[in-house]
Design a protein that fits this description.
185 residues, single chain, 37% helix, eight-stranded mixed β-sheet, alpha+beta
Length: 185
C-alpha cells in the first residue's frame, strides 16, 4: 500500500479498495446528506454489499485502465476521496471528481489531491485533456475547478436529473500544455 501526504495536517491520499468497504460505508453514513446534495455517490453505497460493489466497480475500472478511486484520510479517518470517473489513455482524456464529508471541508484537501491526480495523468500517462463536471449550484466544486486553474467551457442546461430536479452541469477543463504552465509557476 502507498500513501501520499497531502501536506500540513495528518492528511493522506491512498487507494480505496473493496476490502475497505466497511470503512467506506461508515464514511458515507457520516456524510451521506452532505455528499448527496449534488452527487449520487451517497446513494450508491447504502449498505455493506452496495459499498463493496461500488469499490469493486472501480477495482475493475482500474484493471481495465478506465478509472481509479482514492480515499482521503485525515488523522487516520476516511473523510473523502477523489477519482478518475473516466480514464481513456488512447483518447488522452479523463474526468476527475471528488467528494468530502463535512468534517473535512475547508482544508484544501480536495484541491491538493486532485492536483496529484492531474499531475500523474498528464506527466506519467500522457493525458491531454482533464475534465471536471459540477452542478452549477455546487459552489464548492466550481471553486475547486477555479483553484486548479481550469477553464469553464460552458453549461449543459438541465443535463442532470437528480432528486427530482434537473441540474445545470458546468464543464471545466485543463489541457496538458496549460497544466504544465500552471505547475511551473
Amino acid at each position: 500500500m502507498f500513501a501520499i501526504s497531502l501536506g500540513g495536517e495528518a492528511a493522506e491520499l491512498r487507494p480505496l479498495e473493496p476490502w475497505q468497504a466497511e470503512e467506506f460505508l461508515a464514511h458515507m453514513d457520516r456524510g451521506r446528506e452532505f455528499i448527496g446534495e449534488f452527487i449520487a455517490l451517497a446513494a450508491a453505497a447504502t449498505d455493506l454489499d452496495s459499498a463493496r460493489a461500488f469499490l469493486h466497480s472501480y477495482a475493475e475500472k482500474q484493471a481495465a485502465d478506465g478509472g481509479r478511486i482514492y480515499g482521503i484520510w485525515l488523522d487516520g479517518t476516511l473523510v473523502g476521496g477523489v477519482l478518475f470517473r473516466v480514464f481513456d489513455a488512447a483518447l488522452e482524456y479523463c474526468e476527475v471528481g471528488c467528494w468530502l464529508e463535512p468534517a473535512a471541508v475547508g482544508k484544501g484537501l480536495v484541491t491538493r489531491a486532485v492536483r496529484l491526480l492531474i499531475d500523474w495523468a498528464v506527466v506519467e500517462r500522457g493525458i491531454h485533456r482533464v475534465e471536471w463536471m459540477a452542478a452549477s449550484g455546487n459552489t464548492a466544486s466550481v471553486n475547486v475547478a477555479k483553484r486548479l486553474g481550469m477553464t469553464r467551457e460552458g453549461v449543459l442546461r438541465d443535463a442532470f436529473p437528480y432528486r427530482g430536479v434537473r441540474h445545470d452541469m458546468e464543464v471545466w477543463s485543463v489541457l496538458a500544455p496549460q497544466w504544465r504552465e500552471l505547475r511551473s509557476r
